[in-house]
Amino acid sequence: MTKPLALLLYENLRPGSTLVNRLQDLDYRVQVLANPATLLEQARATKPLLVIIELTIKVGDPGAAITALKGDQATAHIPILAYCGAKDTKLKAKALKAGATLVASDTAILEQFPQILEQLLLVE
What we know:
Distance between the termini: 25 Å
Number of domains: 1
Helix content: 40-55%
CATH topology: Rossmann fold
Strand order of the largest sheet: 2-1-3-4-5
Shape: globular
Strand content: 15-25%
CATH superfamily: Response regulator
Number of helices: 6
Radius of gyration: 13 Å
CATH class: Alpha Beta
Order of helices and strands: EHEHEHEHEHH
């Protein structure tokens, strides 16, 4: 059986590279992306189990990428975990409005990643 795939869109090394390592420790394959504009195309092509997006990326618009994923019939079912600084309330609200499944602070995601991942993947 193949390992599940996680698409990870990040710019800042911490927590991005830490998330890559933690996902690999949990037996995921990880594909790292640097530009939100490529996210929909990659999600269609690779059919990931989940997507994790850093909201403070300076290239492109992560909110628009979330909206595109949730608006596409082929990718709308994919759970999306978005993260940013604890004080970035506007970014968090924008991500939730765009369709992110869960939004967390970058510190919480590092401290509680297994629990957050479990919550993200709960089937409703």
